């Protein structure tokens, strides 16, 4: 989706959203990031709700980017680089469907590019196991509590244990 200023949005889940947000914040052309939840059934879920595994949401980073500076394909490369897309419903020590590898696409162009990137990742010979990344249409984005936003910056840490 494109907003009135020509910026586009994207949403990615790749494990703990603190780590994912920190990585995307470093990408030139990414204008803003927010962490939250997408892909579940409960309206306005809390972190506690999602961690309780009763909502079906994934932890995601919502990205607003300038396509004149960074392409969606470049964002997909970052996505696949920062996590293991062969792990089902987990990343490192984090277990549960909220940590699944997922690309939520905005529009048909993003869907096609995401499918191509997933296929390329799977056939590149980098992984012994199949790529399990889910590709789904973007649904309502529910912003996580304020203490989760820019977590590494606020707490002067660079890792959540991965």
Can you put this structure into words, describing what you see?
It is a single chain. The protein has 162 residues and is of the alpha+beta class. It has one domain (8-155): Peptide methionine sulphoxide reductase MsrA (Peptide Methionine Sulfoxide Reductase, Chain A, 2-Layer Sandwich). The chain is 28% helix and 24% strand. The protein has 5 helices and 8 strands; from the N terminus they run βαβαβαβββαββα. The protein has helices at residues 17-25, 47-51, 72-81, 108-123, 151-155, and strands at 8-14, 30-38, 58-65, 90-91, 94-95, 101-105, 134-137, 142-143. A 6-stranded mixed beta sheet has the order 7-6-1-3-2-8, covered by helices on one side. It has a two-stranded antiparallel ribbon with strand order 4-5. α3 (72-81) packs across α4. The chain starts with 7 loop residues before the first strand and ends in a 7-residue tail after the last helix. The mean pLDDT is 92.
